[in-house]
Design a protein that fits this description.
This protein is of the alpha+beta class. The protein is 32% helix and 30% strand. Helix 3 packs across helix 4, helix 4 packs antiparallel against helix 5 and helix 5 crosses helix 6.
Length: 404
């Protein structure tokens, strides 16, 4: 059986999760990627068991369908890229294969359309306005009605908190909109009311008939005006009342097939979606979940795309607790000190796994996104306080230095 996997830049989710899972399932993999990323994929997945790597404009569903067709119809079309869910869904539908509803994939990716659809279905209403790439943001202050402050400005199809910023007044709003358009003139923006509350996630996996709740993360962010994820604690059993609210909003969007990583805020018992990432969570959260839950998460996801029904009971462990800590640059400059990768167990039975994401000697600007991450620490165990102590002790015992 052959899997066609669409990707842009290489990620840990693909390299350490989905490609090894495909090999364990005995699948032949054809990886379609944009020409600018092809060599990176070849280097990262080199070897006799690596995927066949083909180049095409994976952002264009027509090019994707044509390139796949020249190879012969596959048994599954899949992507874990935020940017390629609609393309993968359309290609799967074209070849008569299981996949996500392309309309739901588009609603999830297009944050303005998501807000409009949630409001139209009565699932939730959030004040929002859309700014075309060539529009003057000053027009919003005249025609968009009273803008609620503080408000959030974000790219309509953005990822990883890139250019997501909080504005407290009209001066800040105009400045941030014009700054983003000056650097990214092709980018449409969404301006929406700030939703207060604790940022959480809900992780789900479905086959179109059965939808499993895998758990959720509680997320700590960088100080305003930016929204960089700094720390995430995993809970395999989020409160049922909260889960039901999020699932109702996902149902209104038509989301329920494959993996989904939904971000929402919880305030006074009310859950309100911030964004829907219609894929498995990245930045090693999916690898952490697979280990904590003790399930073949990546294989199960691929099996759903192959048309196999998910088990009604995943037999997931519910006693695991985990923290993921992102070590983040706080200034532009060169990384001059950082620990190397490690895997170890503490006396409290907590497993620590640290991976470097930036090499000593590399120089980078400050992005205020996850591109500022220097490394990631995964701490897993069965006692949350012990997990938190072990993670804090590791961070305190090591140094990450940026030289301007």
């Amino acid at each position: 059986m052959r899997l066609c996997l669409l990707a842009l830049n290489p990620t840990d989710s693909v390299a350490e999760g989905f490609l090894p899972a495909a090999a364990r399932l005995g699948l032949e993999v054809t990886l379609l990627t944009a020409p600018e990323y092809a060599e990176e994929h070849r280097k990262r997945s080199a070897g006799p068991e690596g995927p066949e790597i083909l180049e095409c404009d994976v952002r264009d569903f027509r090019e994707v369908i044509g390139r796949i067709s020249r190879q012969g119809a596959p048994d599954a079309v899949f992507s874990n890229s935020d940017h390629l869910q609609t393309q993968a869904a359309l290609a799967a539908d074209y070849f008569g294969l299981p996949g996500k509803n392309w309309r739901a994939a588009l609603r999830a990716k297009n944050k303005a359309e998501m807000r409009r659809h949630l409001a139209a279905t009565g699932a939730d209403t959030v004040w929002s306005a859309e700014l075309a790439p060539d529009s003057d943001p000053a027009e919003l202050l005249v025609t968009g009605g009273p803008v609620p402050y503080p408000c959030v400005i974000k790219p309509r199809e953005g990822v990883a908190s890139e250019d997501v910023v909080l504005a407290g007044n009209s001066t800040q709003l105009l400045h941030h909109c014009r700054d983003t358009h000056s650097r990214r003139p092709e980018t449409a923006l969404v301006v929406e009311e700030f939703l207060p509350g604790r940022l959480c996630t809900l992780e789900t996996l479905g086959d179109g008939a059965v939808l499993h709740v895998l758990g959720g993360f509680r997320t700590d962010l960088s100080p305003p005006p930016y929204f960089v994820e700094r720390r995430m604690d995993f809970d395999p059993d989020p409160p049922q009342a909260v889960t039901e609210q999020v699932l109702a909003q996902l149902d209104a969007l038509g989301v329920g097939f494959g993996a989904c990583h939904t971000e929402f805020v919880l305030h006074a018992g009310r859950a309100r979606i911030i964004e829907v990432n219609y894929r498995a969570p990245g930045d090693q959260c999916d690898l952490l979940m697979a280990g904590v839950l003790g399930i073949p998460l990546f294989e199960l996801t691929l099996r759903a795309h192959l048309g196999e029904p998910l088990p009604k009971d995943l037999s997931a462990r519910r006693d695991g607790r985990a923290r993921i800590e992102y070590l983040c640059a706080d200034r532009a400059g060169t990384l001059t000190a950082a620990p190397g990768p490690c895997d170890t167990h503490t006396r409290d039975g907590v497993r620590l796994a640290y991976r470097s994401w930036r090499a000593i000697g590399e120089r980078h600007p400050l992005h205020h996104t996850n591109r500022d991450y220097l490394g990631v620490l995964r701490a897993t165990g069965t006692d949350q306080p012990a997990v938190e102590r072990a993670a804090a002790d590791f961070v305190a015992a090591n140094r990450w230095e940026i030289t301007p």
